[in-house]
Amino acid sequence: MGMRSVYGGLAAVVLTTSAGIFAVSGSSLAVDEKSPSTSSAASKSAAAKPAAKDAQPAAQCPVMGATSPASARHTAAGSMSNRDWWPNQLNLAILHQNSSKVSPMGPDFNYAEEFKKLDLEAVKKDINTLLTTSQDWWPADYGNYGPLFIRMAWHSAGTYRVADGRGGAGYGTQRFAPLNSWPDNANLDKARRLLWPIKQKYGNKISWADLMVLTGNCAIESMGGQTIGFAGGREDVWEPQEDIFWGPETEWLGDKRYQGDRELEKPLAAVQMGLIYVNPEGPNGKPDPLAAAKDIRETFARMAMNDEETVALIAGGHTFGKAHGAAPPQGNVGPEPEGASLQEQGLGWKNSFGKGNGKDTITSGLEGAWTSTPVQWSNGYFDNLFNFEWELNKSPAGAWQWTPKDKAAQATVPDAHVPNKMNAPIMFTTDMSLKMDPAYAKISKRFHEHPEEFKLAFAKAW
């Protein structure tokens, strides 16, 4: 029967009983019914002897009791829970989530008071040092983690929706399911793990929610961008928020949220399950920039963004960094953090392609950078968007993306990890929307002609 997970725990213990060996390691209690203490030979010998008339019952594990398959089952191992039996039962558990009575911070914890004790400049100094301190286990693109941290901060804030006020960067929920395992948040587990030493250093004086936003700000400013400052005060939750409706789908990237002429169900503000807002390849992966523009306008409006703020955010965000699609994810990328094995230590998307990181990274499936200066603020995004003629291609991972027809553009972008290698810039279908949609194009051209206006608009929208 082998090893079977039956109980959640935190200790690392081995209990030997007459029924076998019970190992509690990390987060699971496993039963090995083929352990040496219950070998087949010993079992046969015991079976051959008749039981004594007054024999006492065999010793049993105090946690599990009897170890027969029927009695050892636990809901974590697949048995039906009350919720499974009665799916329409009124769920009162959500009334107790993140209850102050069980807060790990203690009943007297006051985040506002703790934050006042924080040396904010010291935190920013540590963040700025981290930005250019590349780690072998997850090498920084271009030697700078700034673009990764900008994506982390934006994806923390980008779940916000005006219809019910849910989502957003206010509680640090990117650390928990389901957000920590959304396809759109692939490899952001590494960004948060990179920040862990700083969080440990300052403890409860700064929340994860504040730290993620502050790190995004520091990244933008360190690369020459502009922000309008930072205000702390986002208090963390310490468990998943079970009361938020993220959509009716039961599979990643499902889109059963539409009716009629692509009318998005309220209060949702993303086009597919597991995305922050839109599919970068276009609606349902179809590379149609005008159809994508419709999705962009709808989803960003549901995040309280107008057209100018939308253009500023997309263009400003894509001024930095690159997309990652070194190879197809199928057969190369493992489960997301919530579905990964215990050995992954809370990380997910383990990549078996090449080195699994650096030039071999697989995230969105799209591959390449938008500008020739991916770790420096510039107007290069709009320069490339308007100065080149673009054609549809596929990334090494098989994702739809756009590259310039112009031969002069083919070697204008430095490679993120291979010295002296030059590549062509890329655009997503959603980037092409900023050029092909009339309203977005008007704003984009104005930003292209007035770089300082663009810089300020991005700072305000951010």
Task: Walk me through the structure.
This protein is of the alpha+beta class and 462 residues long. The protein has helices at 40-48, 69-72, 82-85, 111-116, 120-131, 146-157, 188-202, 208-222, 289-301, 307-317, 380-387, 429-436, 438-449, 451-461, and strands spanning 5-7, 13-17, 20-25, 28-32, 258-259, 263-264, 322-323, 368-369, 390-394, 400-404, 413-414, 422-423. A hairpin with a 5-residue loop joins strand 9 and strand 10. Helix content is 30%, strand content 9%. A four-stranded antiparallel beta sheet has the order 1-4-3-2, with no helix packed on it.
Keywords, please?
single chain, disordered N terminus, alpha+beta, 462 residues, 30% helix, two-stranded antiparallel sheet, 14 helices, four-stranded antiparallel β-sheet
Topology, please?
Elements: E1 5-7, E2 13-17, E3 20-25, E4 28-32, H1 40-48, H2 69-72, H3 82-85, H4 111-116, H5 120-131, H6 146-157, H7 188-202, H8 208-222, E5 258-259, E6 263-264, H9 289-301, H10 307-317, E7 322-323, E8 368-369, H11 380-387, E9 390-394, E10 400-404, E11 413-414, E12 422-423, H12 429-436, H13 438-449, H14 451-461
Helix pairs in contact: 5-7, 5-8, 6-8, 9-12, 10-13, 10-14, 12-13, 13-14
The radius of gyration is 26 Å
Shape field:
globular
What separation lies between the terminal Cα atoms? Answer: 55 Å
- Biggest sheet details: 4 strands, antiparallel
Helices, by number, come to: 14
Mean pLDDT: 88
Low-confidence stretches: 1-53, 62-68
Strand order in the sheet with the most strands: 1-4-3-2
Written as H for each helix and E for each strand, in order along the chain, the element string is EEEEHHHHHHHHEEHHEEHEEEEHHH
Number of strands: 12
* Estimated helix fraction: 25-40%
Q: Pairing-aware structural class of the strands and helices?
A: alpha+beta
What amount of the residues lies in strands? 5-15%
